[in-house]
Amino acid sequence: MVAVKGNNEQQQEQENQREEYRLLVESVKPKHNILKNCVMAFLVGGTICVIGQLFLDFFISQGLGEREAAAVTAGTMVFLGAFLTGIGVYDQIGKIGGAGSIIPITGFANSIVAPAMEYKREGFLFGVGAKLFTVAGPVLVYGIITSCLIGIIYYLLQ
Amino acid sequence: MGQKVGQQSVSFSQPPVITSSATIVGPEEGAGPLAQYFDWVIDDPLFGEKSWEKAECKMLEESGKLALKKIKLETQDADLFLAGDLLNQIVSANYSARGLEIPFFGLFGACSTFVEAMLLASMLIDGGFAERVLLASSSHHLTAERQFRFPVEQGVQRPATGQWTATASGALVVEAQGDGPRIVGGTIGKVVDMGITDMNNMGAAMAPAAADTLLTHFKDTGTNPDSYDLIVTGDLGKVGQKLLIELLKKQGCNPADKLRDCGLMLYDTEKQDMHAGGSGCGCAAAVFAGYFYSELKEQKYKNILLMATGALMSPITCQQGESIPAIAHAVVVSS
């Protein structure tokens, strides 16, 4: 019993030391500038959305229906995101924009094209094929699960 | 024959001599404040190879060859090759050893590998097991990013505590006889883990190991910060260095203005936007083999304590919620 108690005390002391160190780390850690990050995310994300809106209006003005125009706009924005990733620009935008360039559909394109470029040297099967969704995978999995759940709830409520 | 001093330290009766050094660095490092001290700055991160892994391997191998060539030696003149890097199965070291064809021990100590190799080389030489050892370590920003973090083109923001893995390789030739700075002793570090789980804050994970090794070194050898011209840490970065100072002060030790950090010296951290500073096996390797080796040779520094720290993390165990173990090894180098 004595030995066990000694162990517990030792563990407790180690926990205390770790907690004390954690607080020290928090105190010296550089703080994020949340306001600046939010403003940049708003500006970059907003700009991407404005570009999307311009495309949408353009496609509608060319005689497409609203649904078709939305689909073509999404396709165009995905292409732009993929293209800018391919020429090494999107990661620079991401550095400035943060969530502002991750959330729009262009960010989704980036998260698929970036691994595709990264892993092509490991071959098309175990490289590109297996690693394509390393970043976007969780978004797809939980996005699809959530939409299924909401679909069921919607169905039941009707 | 050398001897053990205190708990974890060693001193050498015939201090081994660092007779040559060589460095190869990438474009960002070549644009940093230490550019003039590096032998070879590569503009292309692929180094003419097909993959970044191949490029890192070539950097490691070429820096080893260059260190030998500078003192007119061939690879077969070295008794032993000690090397390590950050990649899984230390592939850069293994493949470069394949090319060099020198008897080889592969090492992994994360970013502490270079000093681990210096310490082991000196012990093997002073113990009479080798006359001439070639040692090297490397890291490559693009190979490390993909293994530990995100694909390179992924548009994400790096946190302020994050460090930039250096594209760099450094090599030394250590011999029983010759002219040059001498490795007079050192301290072998223990693995210390204070429960840090944030992979983007390696400085915080490593600082307690650095403090532990440094305080043990002073106790074992009866020295204090004033015994050295400089105390050079490997790659604690801004956050880790601040923490080290705090931890040392708590134990009544004030390193004052003696502390330098290779991770903070390799880049102009503000202008080059390197956040908390550089890191990687190649960081301490290139800064020591480039800058400090040349300053020691010119007697600008009489003796320095070089202590490289390594965050021994694996993305797999970190994702499983494990904290990051860290280690720090120290060597004393006298001009």
Your description of this structure?
The complex is a heterodimer of chains A (158) and B (335). By secondary structure, chain A is mostly helical. Chain A has one domain (32-157). Helices cover 83% and strands 0% of the residues of chain A. In chain A, helix 2 crosses helix 3 (66-86), helix 3 (66-86) runs parallel beside helix 6 and helix 6 (105-118) packs antiparallel against helix 7. The N and C termini of chain A lie far apart (63 Å). By secondary structure, chain B is an alpha/beta fold. Chain B is built from 10 helices and 15 strands. Chain B has helices at residues 27-30, 52-70, 91-100, 113-126, 141-148, 202-221, 237-250, 262-265, 281-297, 315-319; strands spanning 3-5, 9-11, 17-25, 40-41, 80-85, 104-107, 132-139, 164-165, 168-175, 182-187, 230-233, 259-261, 278-279, 303-311, 326-334. In chain B, helix 7 links the parallel strand 11 (230-233) and strand 12 (259-261). The two termini of chain B are 21 Å apart. The model of chain B has no long low-confidence stretch (mean pLDDT 96). The interface between A and B is medium-sized, with 37 and 28 residues.
Topology:
The complex is a heterodimer of chains A (158) and B (335).
Chain A: H1 2-28, H2 34-61, H3 66-86, H4 90-97, H5 99-102, H6 105-118, H7 124-131, H8 137-157
Helix pairs in contact in A: 2-3, 3-6, 6-7
Chain B: E1 3-5, E2 9-11, E3 17-25, H1 27-30, E4 40-41, H2 52-70, E5 80-85, H3 91-100, E6 104-107, H4 113-126, E7 132-139, H5 141-148, E8 164-165, E9 168-175, E10 182-187, H6 202-221, E11 230-233, H7 237-250, E12 259-261, H8 262-265, E13 278-279, H9 281-297, E14 303-311, H10 315-319, E15 326-334
Helix pairs in contact in B: 2-3, 6-7
